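Allow me, if you will, to draw on your knowledge of protein folds for a short while. I have a record of one protein: its chain in single-letter code and its fold written as discrete structure tokens. I should value your view on which stretches of the chain appear to form regular backbone elements. Thank you for your consideration; the sequence and its tokens are set out here:
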Amino acid sequence: MVELRQLRYFVTVAEELHFGRAAARLHMTQPPLSQAIAALEDLLGAPLFARNRRSVALAPAGAALLPEARRLLAEAAGLPDLARRAAGGEAGRLSLAFITSADYSILPPLLRRYSERYPAVHLTLQEATSDVQVEELLRGGRIDAGFLIPPLPDKALVELDYMKALDEPLILCAPGGLALPRDGGPVRLQDLPRLPLIIFPREVSPALHDAILSCFRAAGITPAIGQQAIQMQTIVSLVSAGMGMALVPQSVCNLMRPGVEYRALADPTPMVETGIAWRRDNASPVLQGFLELLRNT
């Protein structure tokens, strides 16, 4: 195996093209330097220098090796700084999962601020429902943290930590052409046509599913559930196709689709919470830096 010390000797001789001057630069005597170069040549199986009594020149193998040797030495010189930045959360990798509504609310500005503060951290993102995120975190798999809708299931409470990030009301997502007040103001559920309800399956997001149905119960309405979908984009697309109406977190109104109207509700509306969950035993400085930024947002 080639050692960095050998590469440093080689580069110095290649720059000086004189073993005596190179040895002086390296604060060593010439014989051990010559022996080290000969050992490197034996290891690589090719002469690096063409030598005679009057001159030293790079052999073809040496000319090819020189830029790579310089690159490796430069990278090695940067390792202590990289290690310090990684220990301080300034470099490394961070993998985040998120529900759709976070992508239309808290996530974009947060990622922008984080990338500006920690440009050397490589971010990977994946969209996933809350239940999938919890399973990934419990397995200690591909994600460091996830933006989801609480509560966490009981089985997760021992291993996962959670922090609230956002509260927002539910709003109406209705197909275009519905008889809604022209002033763009809030609407009452009692005043809406009895369209089928498009909703998340309860097993995917129990809190959101129950919050939506509680709005209808409070209004004295038992909605007919027409379609169930696990992605906000799909729900909004189904509304756009005239398949029914939906109640969605307020931030989803940033998801524009032709033939869709968003309206606030005049009815009392429960707040939908979004937060971030992560493994309690994840001591990654990169993750801790991200959480600290979120706490101060």
Q: What stands out?
A: DSSP finds ten helices and eleven strands in the chain. The mean pLDDT is 90. The chain has three domains: 4-87, 92-165+274-295, 167-271. The first strand starts at residue 49 and ends at 51.
